[in-house]
Design brief:
Helix content is about 30%, strand content about 25%. The protein has about 300 residues and is α+β, with helices and mostly antiparallel strands. It has three domains: about 1-85, Uridine Diphospho-n-acetylenolpyruvylglucosamine Reductase, domain 2 (2-Layer Sandwich), CATH 3.30.43.10; about 90-215, 2-Layer Sandwich (Uridine Diphospho-n-acetylenolpyruvylglucosamine Reductase, domain 3); about 235-300, Uridine Diphospho-n-acetylenolpyruvylglucosamine Reductase, domain 1. A hairpin with a 5-residue loop joins β11 and β12. It starts with a helix and ends with a strand. The structure holds flavin-adenine dinucleotide.
Length: about 300
């Protein structure tokens, strides 16, 4: 890995490339062992350079955005973790914007507000990047990224760029075609917004943020809702009805505020969190005969 590291720093600023980097520094859960190499990539040229070097040496690649929907196991991630920091925002028309994958949803919603553009109010409190949001079809307050997305550009494993329309993204509840085409890397998304009164946009953003503060345990590290909502049930309610609020394994706790969130109250390990996940699943299954599913993505080695 050191040789590969040395090759990377010939082209990429040394301050952006790390050997044996703890992933707990790059996930909102603040959990995770080391990545062999962790690299912040700021443009497509650098991205292609890094991928080519990894292909030459047969080194696995993992791409992350803001690390807000992942649990990295305690043994860390072998190979190279690329944190995409492609941050361009390009208004093609007044209400049509091409946003690169690394831009944070919170930043983009604020820019939209400043320009009097509506459509991203739902996303102002979701702590992810555009890339992560497209992959997960992130949503809140009854809206999802798919509602405003015109097209997505991605890089495939042969380093070819493709642009696909909304339908071709195969959006569904918290997933998209990128959930199973795992080697494709989202580069940017074009979003269609609509002109509206700034005060109205602000009111909706404030109300969304207020409801988050009231309902979610945002004072503890988490990855948001740990489990997916069901088609005809609300998973957090099932967990609550099992009496699991406040139940813990080590420092991993079922939040007392919102049973759908597992939070890290200190030094939780991935092992603690995964054991708690299994316990919660088992209890819900025993009481309701329902198999609840993880929303967060588990990565890395034990
Ligand atoms: C407090 C809190 C509240 C949350 N609330 C919500 C909510 O209301 N609604 C909601 O939907 N989610 C919510 N989340 C979860 C999370 O913010 C979203 O899923 C978000 O879209 C993930 O984006 P990310 O950039 O952090 O992705 P990451 O966590 O970095 O990655 C998630 C997945 O996407 C992949 N990925 C990331 N970028 C790319 C790319 N460019 N190309 C290909 N694959 C990529 C990663 O490999 C991984 O598989 C919340 C999380 C927290 C911590």
């Amino acid at each position: 890995m050191e040789n590969l590291y040395n090759e990377f720093i010939k082209k990429i600023d040394k301050t952006k490339v790390y050997l044996n980097e703890p992933m707990c520094k790059h996930t909102t859960l603040k959990i995770g062992g080391v990545a062999d190499i962790f690299i912040k990539v700021e443009n497509i040229e650098e991205l292609i350079f890094v991928i080519n070097k990894c292909i030459e040496r047969n080194v696995p690649i993992t791409v992350i955005g803001n690390g807000s929907n992942i649990l990295v196991k305690d043994g860390g991630i072998r190979g190279v973790v690329i944190k995409l920091q492609l941050n361009n925002i390009d208004f093609i028309e007044d209400n049509l914007v091409n946003v690169q994958a690394g831009v944070l949803l919170s930043k983009m919603s604020n820019i939209a507000y400043e320009k009097g553009l509506s459509g991203l109010e739902f996303a102002c409190g979701i702590p992810g990047s555009i890339g992560g949001a497209v992959k997960m079809n992130a949503g809140a307050h009854g809206k999802e990224i798919k509602d405003i997305l015109i097209c997505t550009t991605y890089l495939d494993k042969n380093l070819e760029l493709h642009t696909i329309n909304n339908k071709e993204n195969e959006f569904d509840y918290r997933c998209s075609r990128f959930s199973y085409n795992k080697e494709d890397i989202i580069i940017s998304a074009t979003l269609k917004l609509k002109s509206d009164v700034k005060e109205k946009i602000k009111l909706e953003m404030d109300s969304n943020m207020k409801s988050r503060k009231e309902k979610q345990p945002i004072n503890f590290p988490s990855a948001g809702s740990t489990f997916k909502r069901g088609k005809n049930y609300i998973t957090a309610q099932l967990i609550d009805q099992c009496g699991l609020k406040g139940y813990n394994i080590g420092d991993a706790y079922v939040s007392e505020k919102h049973a759908g969130f597992i939070v890290n109250k200190g030094n939780a390990t991935a092992k603690d969190l995964l054991e708690l996940v299994e316990y919660v699943k088992k209890k819900v299954y025993e009481k309701f005969n329902i198999q609840i599913q993880l929303e967060i993505e588990v990565m890395g080695e034990d």
